[in-house]
Amino acid sequence: MKVVIKFIIIIISFTAFSQSVSTHTYAIKNNDSLKLDVYTPYNIKDNSTLPVVIWMHGGGFSKGSRDGKDEQQLMKYLAKNKFIGVSISYRLSRKGTKTGFGCQCSKQDKLFTFAKAVEDFLDATNYIIQNGDSLHINSKKIIAGGSSSGAESVLSAVYMRDYFIEDTTNYDDIKYAGLISFAGAMVDENYITKENAVPTVLFHGTKDNLVPYSKAPHHSCKFDETGYLILNGSGVIFTMLEKLNKSYYLFRVEGGRHEVASIPFSELDNILQFINNTITYKKVIQTKRLEFKQ
């Protein structure tokens, strides 16, 4: 009898931690067929809806993929923890260009690249909302997330869509409930207001040489270089949220560089706890954590 009971427990545990994955085309733009992968808990009930994290991978707008090893691991983790995970492809505008996305890429091209990525993220979000019933999405609990260039894009999509999108009419129904940024930054922190501020998770290294932690040039470009563009990183963003008495979770790595953009798997439990407390239970939580680079 004991053996049978133990066997049943193992089967239930396996089923609860399984997920199904489906792939969808959310937009076709020129020669780009933009897809997203939806990770859903295997045992979800027909009429159930869950919070969703829509994820945008990093890679300097020239590489990376929605189904990379880390992206898949993150999505599976979300599905195991009663979230829908969505990992998206988007236009890699700097792929194959001579100037890349560093100091030889002009400020205008950088802003144009941000704008296209913002549009793609908003279009992916619209697709998720429009197909919310079949995908089991709770449209009131949509969390935008990304790392590096993906984090720059989601910060812009959540807080600066009016800056990057000329006509936002198609996106009026999109209301994000939260945001996760691993080594991200934005053009102007003053676009964060009491009205649009959402609980925001920020991971960043203070010596990031690509995406600045505070207010500094993107890629550490010099003033006379064509790619000189001031961005405002996590240090500026959390200060604005604190001023507005809004929730944030800041994980600052003293001396850390751009490696902090990597998905911090050991911290995901803390991140989801913050999201649940601030979004589900409406608590205002302001957390600062400090780690020193080894």
Question: What do you see in this structure?
Answer:
- The chain has 294 residues and is α/β, with parallel strands linked by helices.
- It has a single domain (2-292), classed as 3-Layer(aba) Sandwich (Rossmann fold), CATH 3.40.50.1820.
- It has eight helices and twelve strands.
- Strands 1-2-4-3-5-6-8-11-12 form a nine-stranded mixed sheet, with helices on both faces. Strands 7-10-9 form a three-stranded antiparallel sheet.
- A hairpin with a 2-residue loop joins strand 1 (19-29) and strand 2 (32-41).
- The longest helix is centred in the middle third of the chain and has 24 residues, at 107-130.
- Pfam families: BD-FAE (PF20434).
- Keywords: Hydrolase, Signal.
- This is Alpha/beta hydrolase.
- Residues 1-18 form the signal peptide.
Note the main attributes of this structure.
alpha/beta, single chain, 32% helix, 294 residues, Rossmann fold, disordered N terminus, 12 strands
Question: What is the residue-averaged pLDDT?
Answer: 94
Helix content: 25-40%
CATH architecture: 3-Layer(aba) Sandwich
State the secondary-structure class. Answer: alpha/beta
Q: Give the CATH class.
A: Alpha Beta
Shape: globular
The proportion of strand residues reads 25-35%
Domain count: the total is 1
Give the N-terminus to C-terminus distance in angstroms: 51 Å
Please count the beta strands (DSSP E, at least 2 residues each): 12
Profile the largest sheet: 9 strands, mixed
Instruction: Tell me the number of helical segments per DSSP (H or I, 4 or more residues long).
Output: 8
* Annotated CATH homologous superfamily: Alpha/Beta hydrolase fold, catalytic domain
- Rounded to an integer, what's the Rg over CA atoms? 19 Å
| Sheet with most strands: strand arrangement | 1-2-4-3-5-6-8-11-12
CATH topology: Rossmann fold
- Unreliable parts: 1-16
Helix-strand topology string: HEEEHEHHEHHEEEEEHEHE
